[in-house]
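Lab notes, practical 5.
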Amino acid sequence: MSKSYLCTPALRILSRSDLADITLPPSEVIARVEDAYLAYAQQLSRCPTKLMMPIPRTESDAVAYSMLGYDGTLQQVGFKTSYRQGNDSAEKYYTTLTLYDDARGLPFALMDGHRIGSLRTPATSAIIAKHCAHSKARSVLMVGTGAQGLHTLPYIIDVLPQLEETCFFGTHPDGIKAMHDTFSYYCPDRTLQQVDDLKATIAEADIVIAASGRAAHPKIQTAWMKPGGLLISVSSKGVEAGALRQADYVVATNTQQMGVTGHRLAQGSNGEPGEAKVNAELPEIVAGKAAGRTSDDQRIFAFSSGMVITDIPVGHALANRAIAAGRGERITLWQ
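Output from the prediction step:
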C-alpha cells in the first residue's frame, strides 16, 4: 500500500451487516469502556454535553441526538448522531458514529452505531454495578429485553462473578428468546429466570437494571428497593418520575447529560420540577476520586446516559476487526 494511498482523505463505510458478527469478549469491552471513563477523569479526553432536539411535529413522536468527543488514549475524534421515531420499536432508530484519526489528521470510519451501543451500554451498567453494588450483593434483575439490555447480565456477571441469582422481566416474545439465547451463550453453566411479579422481585434484588421503553409494567420506584439496593436506569422510560428523590445516594455517568435526558427523574410527587442532585459521577468513581457508595445500607440510584467517549473505543475496536476482515466500502468524499 503506497504512502499516498494512506494519506488520501477517505472513510471506510461499515454497515450494520458488516459489524453484526464481529465479536468482542465482555471483558475486553468492559476494559475499554472503563479505560475511557478513567481517561476522561484524568482530563485526557473531552466529552461536551450531548444535544437533544425533540421534533416539533408532535405526530412523528421523534427525537434526535448529537454527541461529539475525543479519546485521548486512542487519539480519535468521534461524532455520534441518533434519530428515533417512536419508542416502542427499534425499526425507526438510526444511529451512526464517525471516527477521525487525530494522530494522522485523517478520517477513519463511518459506521452504523447499533452494535456499538448494544455493547458499550451494558459495559457501563457492569462498571456501575462493580463500583456501586453493596459488598454482599448476590442477586441481579434486568428489566427490558431490547438491544440496550441484551448483554447486560453476562457483562455484570463478568465483573461480579459472586452473583448467584440472575433474573429478567420482559414482555416481548422475540426479546425474551434473545435474552435466553444470549445468556446461555455467555453463561452456559448458569440459570436465567424470567419473573412475572416485578415489584416483588425488585424488593428482593440487590441490583436492578431498568432499560425498558414505554414500559408494559408499573413504573419502577427507588423506594421499592431494599436497603443497600442499587437501581441503574439506562435512560429508562420505565422508571417513575421522581425516582432520584427517593435515593440515599445518586450516581450519574455525567451530571449535565442527566439534566438533558433525565430531568423528569428529579420531579416531585406532584410533578413539580426538581434539581438533579448527583453525589458522584462514574468517571470520578472509576478514578478513585469519589465513592460508589458510602454505606452498605444506602439505596443507590444510578443514571446511565451514553457518553461518546465510550462509543469511540468500542467502535474503533469493531472497525479495526471489520476492516481486517475485508468488510465495508472505502469512499473518498473529499477527493
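Observations recorded by the TA: The first strand starts at residue 11 and ends at 14. The chain has ten helices and 15 strands.
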